[in-house]
Every structure is written in structure tokens, then in C-alpha cells.
Design a protein that fits this description.
This protein is of the alpha/beta class and 544 residues long. The chain is built from 18 helices and 27 strands. The strands form six sheets. Strands 2-6-5-3-4-9-8 form a seven-stranded mixed beta sheet, sandwiched between helices. Helix 2 packs across helix 5 and helix 10 runs parallel beside helix 11. The chain is globular. Bound molecules: 6-O-phosphono-alpha-D-glucopyranose and zinc ion (ZN).
């Protein structure tokens, strides 16, 4: 092995977003593009020498090429060992589990999450630290700063590719590359948390489920646990083979993109339980028969029933939700007498709360749910939590959710995504509304009263770090909210997200269609922000 110093020049725009650096595959295919980012990352990880790194991705197009490049760069940068998932595969939660279980220094996950894959799709890279969670902003900002100053990168040359199909150890010079079973550590962790006997009995009694892995990384994990350990019939997992283009799926588990599953769950022969996960298997969607559970409700239901599940029998230390996530979980926290933390969008903001023991369950409106078992959201974990509840209560998904609404009231919720907005127009919309926020408090719009309006800022209670400008909040009397923010995960133009929430306690009004229940808030959002006039669009691209 030789180590080559390859001259290079900075690329603009290598700043990690909500969840790592995410760009079109064609951008990553430019010579030196990936290498520059990895060089900057490794330079920032100053004490990396002699350490163990975890590496894997969601299997999308460009994954294998990138894995080989990163292995050669890890060899050139003094890592002692890299644990790489077989086939280059590791779901995001599994990577987190492996980092924690093996005491690794950190991990590199190759994923653009729920964004489409294939040669014309997206690719991404993110770094996780030794607690298994996404790198905090001080690291990602330092990496970005380094990318803007690079003149060369180091990479091992005159070496063969690692055989990613073969389990066990191989070498690149002094670096030991260990190809590991991507599923084993995560499946073992699931068995420590959930009542596998009860879930096995649920399937044995003839109950059925459908898990849509959407052609992405979740398939092998779901098959191993559901069809393997729990004895669910073959075919329970659909689209279970990870494919480089996800079989053409947009692997985002929501009612707009998981239409095959929605059709199955609303069909005449619908199984009892439906679920889906995204590209890197950290997101989840939960369904009953002809019944969709919103992610915000899912978090609240899991929190309310947590002590039924072995891993959470002792109760919850606290709950955390991202700011735009509905306040349903807050009501459960109040009932339990524990804190409900409100953080900016992005799983990384939960890391300190979990490490400090201030939160046990976390969730986001963007179909992410998880706990302190790892430091990422975890699709299969959420599905097993629900399955454990179905098995231990004997109730259906719909019964559990309706009982929850009856007890706590219902937080009607919807997110409207205006996609592909020209960046300058989106910025103009946000800055215009931001400047008018202070004047909104106290104003009436029809029967709606604005109590407060602000640009959400978060002070981390553990390390005191402050994150500003995390979304515009319009808080109305009675607990209703309108939140606007720009997505940090898109790769084309800007995506404006409008989050709408209304609380309803009246038992006679718990069964409205969400878009109807929220109609006055939807109209007010447009009136206040001028969404149609700023974007030049008539309707949001996606409503969930
Ligand atoms: C990723 C992150 C989440 C975040 C979501 C939406 O999945 O891991 O933490 O909620 O993206 O982010 P966005 O900035 O697009 O709304
Ligand atoms: Zn994801």
C-alpha cells in the first residue's frame, strides 16, 4: 500500500444540512467531491489514529463505490479498524447500534435517507460520533470550514478493493477492515427491549401484518426479525430487497409515497397491522386497517403505554419532540409528570438529552420515532413497539389511537410541503413574515386569536449551545399552531414546510377529516405568509 497526496480544490456548498451532506449523485460523482469531504472530516477528527470506525449505507446507487473510497482514505488516515456492513449495507439505526455496542470512535453513514436513489437520484454522507448519534453542529461546521481550505487529500493506492460480500477480516495496509453482518447487533438489541414471546404469539394466533421496506435498507432487518425471529409468514415484508434505485420507489414512508401499502391496508383483505420504513430505515409509518397514524400521535401513544414494554417498564425519564411535531406528547408528559422537551428539527438535537438521561422517547413529525436505545430514530424499533402493544393489549391500532384521543383529546395535524420553490422566493417569504411576527401577537383573524409569534430559538439545557432561526411559530389561543420553516434536507430549490395543528377535546369532534378540521388555519397561513403569491404555486406538492 502507498499513500498518495492528491492535489484538489475546494467545492462550494459542502455544508452538511439537517442530516449530513446531501446532493445529487452526479454531484458526488465529480472527481474529488467525496474525497474532499471525507478528508475534511478526518482532519477534524484529530484523535482518530488507532481508532475504530463504523461504515455502511442504505445501499443506494454509488454506495459501493463510496465505501471503497472511504476505506482507502481511512487506511491513509491512521484508523486501526473499520467495521463495514456486508455489501456496504448498514441502516442508520443499525450503524448507531454497532457504534455503541462495539465502542467505536464514530461512524460514516452513506445515505440520502428518504430521497429517491439511482443515477439521477440523491446521495449523502453523514458522520456519527461515539455515542452513536449525528455529529453536533460544532463538528459539521468545522468540517465545512475545512472543505473550503483543502489543497490535497490522502488516500491509499495500489490496493485491491475489499470484498464486501465476505464476512470477516481483510486488510488495507495496517488497516483491518472487518465485514460484519449488518443485522445481528440491531436484532439482538431489539430482543432486549421487546416481548418477543408475546409478539410471536400474536402472529401464531393468525394475526397478520404488512411491512413495506420500499426497496431500501430496512428489508433485511425487518425480514430477519419479523419473518425470522417472530415467525411471521414469508411475504409479511414486501419490497424487502435493498435495490440501488429502490425499485423506483421514493422511499419515504408517508401516505403520499407509500401508496402500495396504503392500498393494501385499505383493501378488502387488509392485514391487522401495516408499517413502512424509509431509505435508511430510520423513519417509520404506522397503519391499522384503513387507518393511518400520524407520527405525532404515534409518539404520544407509545409514551402513554411505554411501561407495557419490557425495555421501558421502569417508566420514562422524559419525552422530547421537535418543535413542529404536535403537542400530543406534551399532554402525555404532563399526565406522567415528566418533562417534554421541544427541540429544533433534526435528530441530532435529541443527543444531549438522551445522553444526559433527560429523555427516554423522542419523536418528530417527519415520521421519526426512537429512544435512548440508540442515538438515531429507528424504524423497526417503532414498529416493534407498536407490535408489542398490539400483542400485550389485544387491541387494534385504531382502538389504541381512538382510546388515546378519548383520554387526552386529539391534536389534529397536517404538514403541507411546497416543493421546488425558487430559493430567493422562499427566503423572501420567510424574511417578510419574520419581520411582521412581533406585530401579530394579540391580533384576531375571525375567531382565531394569535397569542404569540416568534422565530424559534433553542438553548440546549445540557451544553448551553444556542440554535437560532429554527422556524416561524404562530401560536393561537387554545393550543393551535401554524409553523413555517424551510427544509434542510432537499436538494432542489427550497421546500417550504407549513405545519398545522389544532387541539380538540370535544368527544363529539374527534373524528373529523384533518384537512377540514384545519381549514381555517390553512387559510390563515396563506393570508399571513402570502404563500401562493410568493411561490407562484397554487397548492402544496405533498400533504401529509
Ligand atoms: C431528516 C432528519 C430529521 C428531520 C427530517 C426533516 O430525516 O433526520 O431529524 O426531521 O430530516 O428535515 P427537514 O429539514 O427536511 O424538514
Ligand atoms: Zn431516513
Amino acid at each position: 500500500m502507498k499513500i498518495a497526496q492528491i492535489p484538489t480544490q475546494p467545492f462550494a456548498g459542502q455544508r452538511p444540512g439537517t442530516s449530513g451532506l446531501r446532493k445529487k449523485v452526479t454531484v458526488f460523482q465529480q472527481p474529488h467531491y467525496l474525497e474532499n469531504f471525507v478528508q475534511a472530516l478526518f482532519e477534524v477528527l484529530e484523535d482518530r489514529r488507532g481508532q475504530t470506525l463504523v461504515l455502511g449505507g442504505d445501499g443506494r446507487f454509488h454506495n459501493r463505490v463510496a465505501v471503497q473510497t472511504i476505506l482507502r482514505m481511512a487506511a491513509a488516515h491512521g484508523f486501526a479498524r473499520v467495521l463495514v456492513g456486508q455489501g456496504g449495507l448498514l441502516s442508520t439505526p443499525a450503524a448507531s447500534a454497532v457504534i455503541r455496542k462495539r465502542g467505536a470512535y464514530g461512524g460514516v453513514v452513506l445515505s440520502a435517507s428518504h430521497n429517491p436513489g439511482g443515477p439521477d437520484g440523491d446521495f449523502g454522507i453523514k458522520y456519527n460520533i461515539g455515542n452513536g448519534g449525528p455529529a453536533p453542529e460544532k463538528i459539521t461546521e468545522a468540517v465545512y470550514a475545512r472543505t473550503q481550505q483543502l489543497t490535497s487529500y490522502a488516500i491509499a493506492t495500489e490496493v485491491d478493493d475489499i470484498d464486501l460480500g465476505r464476512l470477516g477480516e481483510q486488510r488495507i495496509g495496517d488497516l483491518v477492515v472487518e465485514v460484519i453482518d449488518p443485522v445481528a447487533d440491531h436484532a439482538e438489541l431489539m430482543q432486549q427491549l421487546f416481548d418477543f414471546d408475546a409478539m410471536r404469539a400474536w402472529f401464531a394466533s393468525g394475526k397478520r401484518m404488512c411491512y413495506d421496506a420500499m426497496g431500501a435498507a430496512g428489508g433485511p432487518y425487518a425480514k430477519a426479525v419479523l419473518e425470522g425471529l417472530l415467525g411471521a409468514p414469508a411475504g409479511t415484508v414486501i419490497n424487502g430487497e435493498p435495490l440501488e434505485d429502490f425499485g423506483g420507489h421514493h422511499p419515504d414512508p408517508n401516505p403520499a409515497h407509500a401508496q402500495e401499502l396504503i392500498a393494501i391496508m385499505s383493501g378488502p383483505d387488509a392485514p391487522d397491522f401495516g408499517a413502512a420504513s424509509d431509505g435508511d430505515a430510520d423513519r417509520n409509518m404506522i397503519l391499522g386497517r384503513d387507518f393511518v397514524v400520524t407520527p405525532s400521535d404515534s409518539l404520544a401513544v407509545l409514551a402513554a403505554h411505554a411501561t407495557r414494554v419490557p425495555g421501558y417498564r421502569k417508566g420514562l425519564a422524559g419525552i422530547a419532540r421537535s418543535m413542529p411535531t404536535s403537542q400530543a406528547a406534551d399532554r402525555v408528559a404532563q399526565m406522567l409528570g415528566i418533562a417534554c422537551h421541544e427541540t429544533p428539527t433534526g435528530w441530532k438535537f435529541f443527543g444531549n438529552l438522551l445522553d444526559a438521561g433527560q429523555a427516554t422517547l423522542c419523536g418528530e413529525e417527519s415520521y421519526g420515532t426512537g429512544s435512548n436505545h440508540v442515538r438515531e430514530k429507528d424504524g423497526l424499533w417503532a414498529v416493534l413497539f407498536w407490535l408489542n402493544l398490539l400483542a400485550s393489549t389485544g387491541q387494534s391500532v385504531e382502538q389504541l389511537v381512538r382510546a388515546h384521543w378519548a383520554r387526552f383529546g386529539r391534536n389534529y395535524y397536517s404538514r403541507h410541503d411546497w416543493e421546488g420553490v425558487a430559493t430567493d422566493r422562499a427566503d423572501a417569504l420567510m424574511s417578510s413574515l419574520r419581520s411582521r411576527l412581533p406585530a401579530l401577537a394579540g391580533q384576531h383573524f375571525g375567531h382565531l386569536l394569535i397569542e404569540a409569534a416568534d422565530d424559534f430559538a433553542y438553548t440546549d439545557p445540557v451544553d448551553g449551545s444556542v440554535s437560532k432561526a429554527q422556524g416561524l411559530r404562530i401560536l393561537l389561543a387554545g393550543g393551535s399552531r401554524i409553523v413555517l420553516r424551510l427544509s434542510g434536507t432537499g436538494t432542489e430549490g427550497a421546500t417550504l414546510r407549513v405545519y398545522l395543528e389544532r387541539y380538540e377535546a370535544d368527544p363529539a369532534r374527534l373524528d373529523l377529516a384533518p384537512q377540514e378540521a384545519l381549514a381555517d388555519l390553512i387559510a390563515l397561513a396563506d393570508q399571513l405568509a402570502g404563500i401562493r403569491s410568493h411561490t407562484g404555486m397554487d397548492a402544496p406538492a405533498v400533504i401529509t
